[in-house]
Design a protein that fits this description.
Distance between the termini: 33 Å
CATH topology of the largest domain: Elongation Factor Tu (Ef-tu), domain 3
Helix content: 10-25%
Shape: globular
Largest sheet: 7 strands, antiparallel
Radius of gyration: 16 Å
Structural class: mainly beta
CATH architecture of the largest domain: Beta Barrel
Strand order of the largest sheet: 10-9-13-7-8-12-11
Mean pLDDT: 93
């Protein structure tokens, strides 16, 4: 379980087959869970010369933007929540629902950016105005939504401490719906009629 508050920005050192290596000063041990762009991965090799190593499954590649990573690209990193930690964002499982394209990035006043992203059909019943959504693992508030899209505003702190300042229109981001919305939708779908 994660909070959507990014702890470090890592740099992809190597992506070969199903192995991902990320250069970071985030402390990690073998077996630790780390969200990489919002996807929960397990550290398979301990921090060695500032590198964390992960295996990435075919299913994770299919559902996320991790398969599009190249050497030198930035990734958002967050270690798993521990009992007693502050929950600064919202509950994020690290189980990415879908990836979506960035449709627009608009500079607003005072260093804020409005992000509009596609909203895949699988998430349409789980995204609410003023609700939470994780975008590349970042806990964000939905500020607007329409047919097939949603918006959020990136504040200067988020832009400075995540990979969002390096994102461009057309790039893919990982989306995870709010856990509460996911369970409400599931109950409504399977409730007796």
């Amino acid at each position: 379980m994660f909070t959507g508050i990014i702890q470090k920005i890592g740099i992809v050192k190597k992506m070969k087959g199903h192995a991902l290596e990320v250069r970071t000063d985030l402390q990690g041990r073998q077996g630790d869970s780390v969200a990489v762009n919002g996807a929960c991965l397990t550290v398979i090799a301990p921090l060695k010369h500032g590198v964390l190593c992960f295996d990435v499954s075919a299913e994770t590649f299919r559902l996320t933007n991790l398969g599009e990573l190249k050497t030198g690209m930035n990734v958002n990193l967050e270690k798993a929540l521990r009992a007693g930690d502050l929950l600064g964002g919202h509950l994020v499982s690290g189980h990415v629902d879908a990836r979506a394209k960035i449709l627009e990035l608009e500079n607003l006043s005072e260093g804020y950016i409005r992000l509009r992203a596609a909203l895949p059909a699988a998430l349409r019943g789980m995204v609410a105005l003023k609700g939470s959504i994780a975008v590349d693992g970042i806990s964000l508030t939905v500020t607007a939504k329409g047919s097939g899209w949603f918006e959020t505003v990136l504040v200067p702190h988020t832009l400075k401490n995540t990979n969002m300042a390096r994102r461009e229109k057309g790039m893919a981001v990982n989306l995870e719906a709010d856990l509460i919305a996911r369970y409400v939708r599931s109950n409504l779908e399977y409730a007796p009629r």
